Fold:
Amino acid sequence: MLNLKRCSCVFVAVFCFVTISFAQNIPLFTKDFTAKEFAERRDKVFDAIGKNAIAVMQGEPSPRGYTRFRQSNEFYYLTGIEVPHAYLVMDGASRRTALFLPHRNEGRERGEGKMLSSEDRELIAKHTGIRAVYGSELLAEHLARFTRRSSAPVAYTPFSPAEGFAESRDLGLRVQMDISSDAWDGAEARHVRFMKNLKSRVPGLQLKDLSPILDQMRLIKSPAEMDMIRKATRLSGLALMESMRSTEPGMMEYELDAVAKYVFYRNGGQGDAYYSLIATAQNAYFPHYHKGKGVMKDGDFLLMDYAPDYGYYMSDVTRNWPVNGKFSRDQRDLYGFYLACYKSILYNIESGKTAAQISLRAVKEMEQHLAKATFSKEIYRKAAERFVASQKAFAGRRNTLGHWVGMATHDVGRINGPLKAGMVFTIEPALRVPEEMIYIRLEDLVIIHDNSVEIVSEFVPMEIDEIEKLMAEDGMSQKYPREKTP
Structure:
């Protein structure tokens, strides 16, 4: 006998699921970039690989643990698709792009909401312009078809590790080497396994490196990319300024990490660009110290270097300030001299000039600052002299002034000439006093235009008087003090 009560409950449950699915306010496609911009990027890849080759790319897998999925920079750069275990094939002959996605998982959607799948061909075509969408199991078949029509089939694929969450190429390579050096692990990197699978499953396929092509494309940012980097930089600067207000003796370094994260996430950041570098006193002598477990003491000098991931684009900004809100005489001497030298680099940056030309001009100003500077200790003067001497030694042969910034904090791309419009980078020279383990470093984000230079992070105080004035204001830590432990 048919159980009408049970059937009606099932019907209601299914109906509710369908209604909720279609009513959900889940953005399945980015609004930061147009489908046209993604298509223009793919066109540049087609131009680079030629008519007799294809490009094949593997997206990020499902994340471990209860963390949100984040696509790899490379895959997102060409598609905007944020789906785990996705694949991309670009055919140079037809200039046709195909996506290979997992099939719909209705059980998971009941728990997590709508997810793009291979069944969403029309939806994907409408929003991305990519009309060929298949299940992932058909990837090998499509690759085999390509090899049959070519006497010497060539497939371009990235030979470098994919950039994932809070990851730059340099860190990806370091992780790969650490695992390879572990005798009890030794697991191959995912991109290496993918290349081996391509070779073994598609006999006759010759692989070439797609990474240099994408790297040089990413070196020059579009107006939309610059806007994303500006937003990331704005949040980085606001977080640093709020941290200046909040700083006081007795705090833990990690408390400023919490202040910054609130600013990031409250304003749409999707994660960290890199782990926070918040270092008080001698901890700052180690440039990538990130444990955050130090206690801020009266008289200490603090370094904070932190930025968010905003829609797959990063920033990188650093400031120094005294924990008690007032620069001591020693701090004024050293920081004041360093700041003058730092501005000699920052304000000599010019579109159309090489890094060497800019550095040589900056060093001349640094030597003038050194001649006029006074220091409370002889070791400080010696440190200042070493700083200027090191800048002078490298000035004439610099290719870059710092590091590129974009989808990665240490972004990709190479330059052997003058600065061009669309290049984005930071400068971050450091002054060290080894006798007292003092380390001072500032960092600002710069965008090059045709006839101008935009210092995006310039709004973040770096002058002594401006920092002291800001630190006199109450911050979040004063308004919302931490819980007292019993």
